[in-house]
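Friendly challenge for the regulars: who can give me the structure tokens for this chain first? No prize, just bragging rights.
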Amino acid sequence: MKKYFIRTFGCQMNVNDSQKMAGILKSLGYEPARDWREADVILVNTCSVREKPDQKVLSALGEYKKIKRENPNAIIGVCGCLAQRAGYEILQKAPFIDMVFGTTNIHHLPQLLEEAQKGNKAVEIIEEIDENETELDKYPTVRENKYTAYVTVIRGCDKKCTYCIVPTTRGKERSRRIGDIIREVQWLVEDGVKEIHLIGQNVTAYGKDFGDVKFWELLYAVANVDGVERIRFTTGHPRDLDEDTIKAMADIPQVCEYLHLPIQAGSDRILEAMDRGYTQKEYLKKIELLKKYIPDIALSTDIIVGFPGETYEDYLETVKVVKEVEYDQIFAFKYSPRPGTPAAHMKLTEDYQKAGQWLSDLINIQKEIAFKKNLSYEGKTVEVLVEEEKDGKLVGRTRTNKLVHLEGEHNLLGSIVNAKITKANRFSLEGEAIKETV
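First reply, four minutes later:
Bragging rights claimed.
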């Protein structure tokens, strides 16, 4: 039996796309390879949000090229956001690649693979949205995690953040029909999934292109599927998080007490330059509402440090927000110009070299906040979905998305259990599973 290997860079959307590609290859009779060296098909699913993933992709391709010596018929393909933005450029830099395709025509993989196996370069980068892209949703996902699953509910983004390449690589917002989403959720539950993670570039904008459907209505619809025990969603733009959605989060028992809400910067001046469409005060008002309706909510965010024009005073506004909100986790990066974005034409901040130190300082501040938050769990009993067994211990997550290593019986895999937290680490918790399942 032929084998495939998929290397994924980037966000949850890319992960879900890779799971769908694995489903397509499985339907074609392929099985996963333990290692790229034994694969007949290697796919590199790329990200283009920052410069570093671009470099990692080219480095990985240089390594995978070696497979051609042992297996000249092996197919190497590049797909995803970087392929959508610069597919022909990648092909010039790595001419040994057999396939290149973008983000909206993944469902064409069978035809592209057939073409590549004939010895032809299979290159298909469609700039317009493929009206048949929903064909991809008909394929099952092949997941490493048996008990949690991503479900794409919206593709693309209509926002115009000046630093972001996503509207270019993923296109405008396109929501899936609730009926199609529910059918996928039902299939996943029948496959043993306990936690559904609704995803999109801007998930809280779901339904706006329909005009008569709201994201909070989708939450209720998913919660009504028999067997759904947990619901999460990522990522929403703060402008699209309304009070109705927050109320639904509080009202629906399956919706976990966790939310990722990107702020990107704390300075109003920088937020305006980013075209984020809100002020620091307006963002903090959303945080206030979340804590009002869901007092125990855990929060995470994205932050860019060193955006064009950012001064140390601007950076301190970001520090202020981090300290005030007390996020459980932040994903912070130094600004990276993306070709084709408005910000790429802006003059870099005069403090760009210092921004590396700002970033380091911000991460250290966050580490202390996160550790303090973790320490508050010691001695508490929390609900944990046991997802895997690793190094003799059970591993799972709390409703607040904390990683927990548990002592417990091995037959608890896939169970939601009560666990007593015995120790808090900087990035995880340790505990003991209590026998009664939730």
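The mean pLDDT is 94. The chain has four domains: 3-124, 145-256, 264-375, 381-437. Your move, everyone else.
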